[in-house]
Automatic annotation (TrEMBL):
Lineage of source species: Bacteria, Bacillati, Bacillota, Bacilli, Bacillales
Name listed for the protein in its UniProt record: 3'-5' exonuclease DinG
Pfam families, sorted: Helicase_C_2, ResIII, RNase_T
Chain ranges for the short sequence motif DEAH box as given in the UniProt record: 464-467
UniProt cross-references to InterPro entries, sorted A to Z: ATP-dep_Helicase_C, DinG, DinG/Rad3-like, DnaQ, Helic_SF1/SF2_ATP-bd_DinG/Rad3, Helicase/UvrB_N, P-loop_NTPase, Ribonucl_H
Amino acid sequence: MTTFAIVDLETTGNSASKGDRIIEIGIVVMNEEGSVVEEFSSLVYPEREIPPFITSLTGIEDEDVLEAPLFSEIAEDIYPLFQNGYIVAHNIEFDLSFLNDELARCGYQPLHNPIIDTVEFSRIMLPTSPTYKLGQLADHLNMGHDRPHRALSDAQVTADLLAYLLKELKSLPERTLVHLLKVESKLKSDLRPFIQLNIDQKRYGQITDPDIDIRHGISVRKQTNLRTTAPINLPSFESWKKDVYEGENGLKSLLDNFENRQGQQEMTTNVHEAFEQDKHAVIEAGAGTGKSVAYLLTASYHALQHDSRVVITTHTTSLQKQLLEDEIPKVERMFPRPIKAVLYKGKSHYISLVHFHYELENSYQDNYDVALTKAMILVWLTTTRTGDVDEIQLPSNGRQFWHKVSAEQSSKSVQLGYVDDSFYQWAQQKALHADLVITNHALFCMDIMKEESILPEYDRVVIDEAHHLESVSSRYFGVRMNYKEIQRHLTQFGEIFHKSVYRQWPLQREFHQYLERGQYAIDEAKEELSHLSRFIYQNVKKQKNLKGKSDVGRIQLVLKPEEMPSFMTTAKEMSYRFLASLQKLSHEMSKIEEQLRGLLSLKEDEGVPILLTRLHTHRELCQTIRSQLIHYFDFVREGEVKWVEIEGEGAANSIYLFSEPFDIARLLNQRLFQVKKSVILTSATLATDHSFTYIRDTLGLIDDERTLEVNIPSPYNYKNQVQLMVPNDFPNVKEDPDAFIEAISEAIYSVAEVTRGRMLVLFTSYDMLRKTYHLLRDFIDPEEFMIFAQGISSGSRDRLKKNFQAFDQAILLGTSSFWEGVDIPGDDLSCLMMVRLPFQPPDQPVQSIRNERMKKEGKNSFMEKSLPHAIIRFKQGFGRLIRSNKDRGIVFICDTRLMEARYGKYFLSSLPDVPVSYKSTRQLINQIEDWL
């Protein structure tokens, strides 16, 4: 009978090889039925001090282990527990290295048992879990975990987790298990016996799962049939709306704490009026209005009543998730049939089953990350309804593999005798039958930019988070290229020239010459790209007076061909050399395509059409890179700004090329507002100085007769919930930037002491954020406050937010993306600090060119562009603090311009009515203490 020795260790640090030692050991011995046979637990004297960080994590202090045995004294009790069974741990490499190190010290042979790593096993069996930390997994699976970071408790939870994962493995379809065997040998865990046993049981028990389909040889969750629905008659809008907001079976029947908000009703009416009268609308709805429910009600009513499709586009994935999982299920209860709402994304998000099956059949060359990625995808396919990569937590190099198997690889223009009837096609079908299509600004802008539409046909659209539309559309009407991305494409192209890919077919000798020439062309292209990138990098680096920095700290240089003719000429020539090798590469791909088409007629192998589509996709991509680079270096277009960014401290060829149209308003007017019957722009921040002039001018919404303007204030009681404070004793940032950063750091620490952390500090400059972070780290004890900083602490924005919320006393420093879209409700956030008013630096490329242009046209670029843009950012930042009617907090603004500059009043008048204090830092801190 199989036994498992599940072990967990607490240690003085991360590395046995650097002298760290075990301070506690817990072992649970379990049989394959899941019953615990034996337990062992002991503190261990480590013969060295326990660091404070480990004590704060585990609660184990030096005094606790003074009387504990040495490891050598318990080794003879421990060693037999591992005999003849599996060793299991959550991150086994860590525990096993410490165990074997201690055993060797005591004269025992190292343990070479079969192993199971429950981190890896969890990644495979729970591919959509947001985290794989033991404590968070235990919470997620409702497993009791009384004493996290204590060895026996962690071992007991790991035992429960193992039993759960083995049960999940048993429930997988036979076909999935068979495919898992193909990658099992590359994994850390010895899972083969369990997979094989389950295959045998499935095979001989003839168990089938009614929810599973076999597509392209892979088990996938059965797709629900698209419901065809007959048009329905709804009551008149006014009577229906009255029932929804005031009736006993309306929203109050679904929500315990439902409040009938006047602003929400007003917005529902406004959107309906715009839809019915074919008008556009600009609606600012303050925090707490309930705007998403308001527009969803109207959009759903219109879609069902008229049997037509409404598109809803958002900037953030978190809002899309909220709409689909929280809001739409509520809203659809107000209608006689369910609402058909789908989330629709670009091709690269969806998996192609044809291409994934091809990769499964060629698993012999996989490295560890690819094997793990395949295993995770196999299990995920048995549960996903969407096939969307955003659902799954891929390992670090898993994204590289995903590019090979995404629907991007399936080309429409190549008819190859197979149908890739998988998730992208299903998403298209669902979108065609949907009432509401939810998408993101990126795909929405790509759709209005391209001649060939991506989204299904629609006449009415709600653009939520509409203050982002300008920046996103600028990106999609311009060029964005970078060295790393092109190098990644070239590496991926290289795989098509490996001889091993074609080993099963009888190909002529000249075919191998194409492969060799293709590989040579790739090497040449990589080299030419490196030369070009290094040349650009060095020229940007040696420019004098380069002040421009992007919000992530990259150095920027605006390209002005007339001022730098020799640089532009050389860069253009070098780009041509790169493009020539790209052209050779494309030529060799065409030759291989011709040869493969000969095999296609023989119906030799399903791998042939796969390779043909990949070659076609690669050649299209070569063409795209070519046309973008020619556009970038060849054409000087009126109304377009081009610039280069480099990583100041990064590799000497890490460059980014950008271009954007100067006048996005004209393009949006032509392609969106003149074409669609009704466009609703909404956000909590659209007005500046109580006017929508700025946002309308920026987005090209110039038709006054067809446009409704509505401003709905927030229902929150800001007067009692917020105190706005501005210190009057900060050094002048321009005269003495170092003193200003010191003052910021001291203020952060002093305020944090009063608010017990729970602070979000917003910067406009990444450079200033970095300097402040390092200064804070010098004098703040991590046991007092944990400090997280965007771009310095590892992890995405959401990961940083979660880490911040996980600690009682924490400070989070953020730039650009933290000014909005970050929700930290309740007691997790007590203070929001803004270091500077969020003006775009005047030396940023688009801004500097725009200022020059507006000056020539006799316009005031500061009043007409810079100031309104900063006010909208300011309102977004302010909105991070109060996310419910119970929140209270401080907004601390370290920029005296708010009180002393002529334009400061415009910022203050854009906020709700809040008490403002302008005093010394010490007085303000005393005031915070009293108020909180």
